[in-house]
Write a structure and sequence with these properties.
By secondary structure, the chain is an all-alpha fold. Helices cover 83% and strands 0% of the residues. It has twelve helices and no strands. The radius of gyration is 25 Å and the shape is globular.
């Protein structure tokens, strides 16, 4: 009888321990699910704020917490834009028209969000102003001649580079698809990364604004939180270029555009620090557009050689 009672107690203990273990597992899974849900919501907010992709309204604070993942936004935008160029190629659209449509689609997907900042800070650079005068020019909604000229150059460079990429491979649709998507995606990844680095390295604006929230959140995190998504997002386009071009050329192109990106970021951070003392959303947008255009031009030249 005592032996049966002992066995019963052991069985009861095992059942209780199993139930407790199951509760711990379920609780852990619920917490993991909640964490993943929050991360997805934060990333969705980031997409909503930086693009026109219709994913519903987003919260600024959520978007800022996911800002370190911004290279993935470049990956998404690049895939969308390059997919349209591939469709145009299959449909036999003329290069001149395809280049024009590239500029239109880029503006449509990004909402022209950064082009306005590009124009504003171009005026500041053109004026050679510093201090309060530079800040007043930056905040002036009117566009000066320097802004108009540089925006025109931006559009022409984007247009010309997209045509060069479009015509780089004429008859092999598979190679065209791989190379075009890889080059376009890479140009967007480094552009979004440049914006992150500018806000990470530069002094945040002294007033409450969207860029300040992003800048403070970037500074709060380790740079590795950003470099890991950057490296992960770059693997696909670099591998794509290496599938069509020699590996040495693919790696050389990657090193060149990364060096170009870093040089532009350092220039913009130093220039904005000397002119107005901080970096705001307009200057971040200027950085994005300058890196995107020059990166696209550099890549177009390299794949055309």
């Amino acid at each position: 009888m005592l032996e049966m009672l002992a066995h019963s107690n052991i069985l009861h203990h095992i059942i209780v321990e199993s139930q407790l273990g199951l509760e711990v597992i379920i609780l852990g899974l619920l917490r993991l699910s909640d964490m993943l849900s929050r991360r997805i919501e934060e990333f969705r907010s980031l997409i909503t704020l930086l693009t026109t992709i219709p994913l519903g309204p987003g919260r600024l604070e959520d978007a800022a917490r996911a800002f370190h993942l911004v290279p993935l936004i470049g990956l998404i935008v690049g895939v969308i834009v390059s997919s349209m160029l591939i469709v145009f190629k299959v449909l036999g659209v003329e290069p001149v028209l395809a280049g024009l449509l590239y500029v239109a689609i880029h503006t449509l997907v990004t909402g022209g969000l950064h082009l306005d900042g590009f124009a504003d800070y171009s005026d500041v650079i053109g004026s050679r102003a510093r201090g309060e005068r530079a800040l007043s020019i930056l905040k002036d909604p009117r566009k000066g001649s320097f802004a108009v000229i540089l925006v025109a150059i931006n559009i022409i460079a984007s247009y010309s580079s997209s045509i060069a990429i479009y015509e780089s491979i004429r008859w092999d649709y598979l190679k065209f698809t791989i190379l075009t998507s890889s080059v376009i995606v890479l140009s967007y990844i480094i552009a979004y990364e440049a914006m992150y680095l500018a806000l990470f390295l530069g002094r945040e604006e002294p007033y409450e604004g969207m860029a300040k929230v992003f800048s403070l959140e970037a500074k709060r995190r380790s740079i590795m939180d950003n470099l890991i998504p950057l490296a992960a997002s770059m693997v696909i386009p670099v591998a794509g270029i290496a599938m069509v071009k020699p590996l040495v050329e693919a790696l050389t192109a990657t090193i060149i555009i990364l060096t170009l990106m870093i040089a532009i970021v350092v220039y913009v951070v130093r220039d904005s620090s000397n002119r107005i003392g901080f970096i705001n959303g307009d200057i971040a947008g200027f950085t994005y557009e300058l890196v995107r255009v020059l990166g696209l031009v550099a890549l177009a030249i390299m794949i055309s050689l």
